[in-house]
Design goal:
With 127 residues, the chain is an alpha+beta fold. The protein has one domain (3-126): HIT-like (HIT family, subunit A, 2-Layer Sandwich), CATH 3.30.428.10. Helices cover 33% and strands 20% of the residues. It contains four helices and five strands. It has helices spanning 3-7, 10-15, 60-81, 118-126, and strands at residues 23-26, 30-34, 44-48, 85-89, 103-108. The protein has a five-stranded antiparallel beta sheet. Helix 3 packs across helix 4 (118-126). The longest helix has 22 residues, at 60-81. The structure holds guanosine-5'-monophosphate and zinc ion. Residues 10, 19, 21, 33, 35-37, 91, 96-98 line the site of guanosine-5'-monophosphate.
């Protein structure tokens, strides 16, 4: 991993606010924002602010913080979008499109409606 890779990293750009995102939460360690191309309404990504490539690169403290934040975001999604469960996905290697560690939070719904625009979901969560 050289600096060129990190400078071209789309999630580093989001963390550094060079690219906008629908951010739900942030602290000194993570930024949490809606996936721009959601599989399901409320599809969210938890991204460490520091560039780690994947599960095999990230340290345990950061990983544990991400899991802790996933519980808080689950509560937010449950309160605002009436979700009925949560699926966590984390790709490494071949199926990892963005080579900056991220945890997908995909809400589950008893009655899954149509996929709404991300902006609309963001307003529901922040309304
Ligand atoms: P992966 O396949 O690497 O696990 O998933 C990458 C995810 O990042 C995809 O779900 C994709 O929609 C999302 N994504 C890619 N580029 C952007 C972006 O610029 N902004 C946001 N919010 N999500 C992105
Ligand atoms: Zn990065």
């Amino acid at each position: 991993m050289d600096m060129g890779d990190i400078m071209d990293c789309i999630f580093c750009k989001i963390v550094n606010e060079k690219i906008p995102s629908y951010t739900l939460y942030e602290d000194e360690i993570v930024k949490v924002f809606l996936d721009v191309n959601p599989d399901v309404n409320g599809h969210t990504l938890i991204v460490p602010k520091k560039h780690y490539q994947d599960l095999f690169d990230i340290d345990n403290d950061t990983l544990m913080h991400i899991m802790d934040i996933s519980r808080k975001i689950n509560q937010l999604l449950s309160d605002k979008l009436n979700t009925d469960g949560l699926t966590l996905v984390q790709n490494n290697g071949l199926k990892q499109e963005v080579k900056h560690f991220h945890l997908h939070l995909k809400p589950q719904y008893k009655n899954e409606g149509n996929l709404l625009p991300v902006e609309e979901i963001y307003k529901k969560i922040n309304g």
